[in-house]
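WARN no homologs supplied; continuing
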Amino acid sequence: MAAPPLPLAVTMGEPGGVGPDVTLAAWAMRERTSLPAFYWLGDPDLLVARARRMGIAAAIERVAPADAEACFPRAIPVVPLDARVTSEAGRLDPGNAAAVIEAIARAVGDIRSGNAAAVVTNPINKKSLYDAGFRYPGHTEFLGTLSAAWTGHPARPVMMLAGPSLKAVPVTVHIPLHDVPAALSEQLVVETGQILAGDLRRRFAIAQPRIAVAGLNPHAGEGGALGDEEERIVRPAVRALQAAGIAAFGPLSADSMFHPEARAGYDAALCMYHDQALIPAKTLSFDETVNVTLGLAFVRTSPDHGTALDIAGTGRANPSSLTAALKMAAMLVRNDPGR
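OK structure emitted
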């Protein structure tokens, strides 16, 4: 796979989690997996200590982003952070929040200044950040703020889980299930579908994307017998998307739209809530599925797993999802005519 013209910026993520582990393992497999060049925004001493603990023979060099691509074949390029990092594998420290946030913000800044092609984020621990005063629900919303600051226009970031056999987008994301019906609206479904269709064209190079839209209730409401959100919200939204020239169809019963024959009929599934999208995506291909944020001024991907504190530092963390996220970021950059 040809690399993008600039290296990818990989954030540290939660220092006590498996982000350092999978970064080390991915780099160690770089030739066999044809990885695009990347640099790691984090604490070099942390990476050295984790490599030693895991028994990975990895050279680690402190670099500026501009020197990362030349360094990558011989060593992991690390761009040090200003904020302090203390880490013990498997343990959280809210004192690391400033460094975790700095890594994300600096990665976006490096794209903006022309030193990075895209950002690939390692997993964060949300509670640890919340305990330190982080006011965003997660990566996605924070990246939306950074995108808006870049362009001067509000951003509506949209989460996609993209794997070899399914691309799925939830309309509502990190909210309790009992809040979903009140949060859904025709406008929200339409806006999410429009952003999905736009990024499928622009960055996934799908000229005429087909979007399957799930209902909220069992059997897509069973004609109103099991709920009326399909008739009040989802069906009018599908009609509005169709009127805008988007090949959307539904609402579909979610229990029958993810088998192989059904998936052959669409390019992406638009789902009504978090688990409706993420369960089939992760079940079909957990190790190769990538979290992609749509609707941003830049490309962002991430592994689809969490911090996995229980196995941090053991060498058991599978780097496949990070490897897939790196390759997908490179692909999306190449496809984007705006870059």
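The chain has two domains: 1-156+296-339, 158-295.
OK
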